[in-house]
Amino acid sequence: MKVGIFSDVHANIEALSAVTAALEQESPDMLLCGGDVVGYGASPNECCDIVRTLSKSTVLGNHDAAVAGRMDYSYYYEAARNALDLHAQVLTEENMEWLKSLPYKKEFSEIGLDICHGSPVRLEEFDYIFAPEQAAECLPIWDKLAPLTLIGHSHLCKVFALRPGDVRELPAEKFELDPDTKYIVSVGSVGQPRDYDNRASYTMYDSDAKTFDFFRVEYDIEAAAEKIIDGNLEQNFAHRLFIGV
């Protein structure tokens, strides 16, 4: 089975449209979304509509949880809070109910895959995994991990290979899964990459060949940035799109 995976759309319809067009060329059997469909960007309803339609399963991200009233985000910085407040006001009832229904984690045991937004150790806390020492916090639950755990949240493309008592970071490039190793893969961000590559990110997993690959695609950053500025959102949310950070 070919599975297309993307995450952290953050209401960027231009980036999402480019990714879905690229994924269509890959002809996946299933699409999965790692959460944070909303937040930061200017097109929350449009992005929710697309993800709801195309994704087989979407898990809850922290920005989704905030907009849906499922977590306290009073400690977020002001610009992020303002964007979340705005999205909560403009979301359609259907899209709001969808966010309220999203699970923290989805398991696809038939293909050896789990997906969640942050660390699988404490799902509701949305802990980051972007360094080996953070991935090492999953070693105590190694036996319970799926062969492949997919996450988002950090907006970075990362691969961590776990064996009992050991964690190695691998390059974020195509690799073949070792049956004696379990993997935690951060799939990057569609709508707000933060690895100094401003192209939208998506990934593909072939469960038959046991291969995982990373892809990037260009999109109309100027249009996405202009909508953010015209929408009275934080201008830095627009500026950072150009530099990918």
Description:
The chain contains 8 helices and 12 strands. The protein has 245 residues and is an alpha/beta fold. The strands form 2 sheets. A 6-stranded mixed β-sheet has the order 3-2-1-11-12-9. The protein has a 6-stranded mixed β-sheet with strand order 4-5-6-10-7-8.
SSE layout:
Layout lengths: L1 E5 L6 H14 L3 E4 L10 H11 L2 E2 L3 H6 L10 H13 L2 H9 L3 E4 L4 E4 L15 H4 L12 E4 L5 E7 L2 E5 L4 E2 L5 E6 L12 E7 L4 E7 L3 H10 L4 H9 L2
Parallel strand pairs: 1-2, 2-3, 5-6, 6-10
Antiparallel strand pairs: 1-11, 4-5, 7-8, 7-10, 9-12, 11-12
Helix pairs in contact: 7-8
Put the structure in a nutshell.
The protein is an alpha/beta fold and 245 residues long. It has helices at residues 13-26, 44-54, 62-67, 78-90, 93-101, 132-135, 221-230, 235-243, and strands spanning 2-6, 30-33, 57-58, 105-108, 113-116, 148-151, 157-163, 166-170, 175-176, 182-187, 200-206, 211-217.
Task: Pick out its properties.
globular, Purple Acid Phosphatase, chain A, domain 2, 8 helices, about 240 residues, six-stranded mixed beta sheet, alpha/beta
Q: What number of domains?
A: 1
Strand element count: 12
Which class of secondary structure composition applies to the elements? Answer: alpha/beta
Mean pLDDT across every amino acid position: 97
Number of H- or I-type helical stretches: 8
List low-confidence stretches.
none
Task: Assign the CATH class.
Answer: Alpha Beta
Radius of gyration: 17 Å
In helices, the fraction of residues equals: 25-40%
At CATH level 3, the topology is Purple Acid Phosphatase, chain A, domain 2
Q: What's the shape?
A: globular
Assigned CATH architecture = 4-Layer Sandwich
Largest sheet composition: 6 strands, mixed
Distance between the termini: 33 Å
Q: What is the H/E order?
A: EHEHEHHHEEHEEEEEEEHH
> Within the largest sheet, what's the order of strands?
3-2-1-11-12-9
**Beta strand %:** 15-25%
CATH superfamily: Metallo-dependent phosphatases
